[in-house]
Amino acid sequence: MRSLSHWLSSHQLAAFFVLTFLISWAVFIPAQLLWGEPGEVHALSLVGGFGPFVSAIIVTSAAGKGSLLRWLRRIFAWRIGLIWLVAGWVLMPVGVGLLDQGLYLSLGGEAVSGETTLLGYIIVVPIAALFLGGNEEPGWRGFALPAMLERQHPAVASVLLGMIWSAWHLPLLALPSDSSTAPHIVSFSVSVVGLSIIMTWLYSKSKMSVIPVMLFHQGTNLIENLFERPTDVLPGGEDWQIIRGIVYWTMALGLLLWTKGRLGFSTSEARHLSNPSS
Q1: Of 2, 138, 188, 242, which has the fewest beta carbons less than 10 angstroms from its beta carbon?
Q2: What is the distance of C-alpha 229 from the center of its chain?
Q3: Structural domain tally of the chain?
Q4: Is 192 exposed, middle or buried (0-12, 13-18, 19+ CB in 10 A)?
Q5: Is there a contact between 261 and 145 (Cβ–Cβ < 8 Å)?
């Protein structure tokens, strides 16, 4: 047991990724194979979404007494400025939704009211973020990103983390498979890498608190409910995923240019954050 704890504390980032895939895929694969439908995530697979958070807890706990509590206090900090909470919760996801809708309409789509209201969206997002996509962020952005920033440029770390993040979703995308599986995996992966860049910037601006990032992650999952898009505007493709990828990458490239690639991070900040004993 002592040797395992030593390995976990000595190889934190590698241990985190290995544990995350093992824990999550141990749920994703049987749930999707036994009960899933093509293109749908089975409800049981949602349990696997806690894999990144649980893995971060395990690895951080191995770093020594008090490390876990210090880490949790740091990533769930509330004193970050109201504007960044509102940005992650409402402004940025709604902006993504409006850009999505604008591109959809410009391609000839029909405008139809969505199935929910803005108020409904605002109420649901914080609750859903605790159990659905937002619950991944303490692991991805709260643990993995700072450790990667210690060794890599922010843009490189964002792209690499986005690729790993998209690969983590593979059982949800590919099981069970049909003729649309491969194109969906490609469009999803491209989209997620762009989103990863945006999230790095938001994490930095939020003083490295994961709360706005959790809200933004969940908000982007739910914002499409504000808009109904019944028209196929891109024959042969999955409209919403391709359009969303274009929006994410437009935003990501804009942020990279604006921040000169740093996305708000300095090397000294990354070193401090990656040390759980600090």
Answers
A1: 2
A2: 24
A3: 1
A4: buried
A5: no
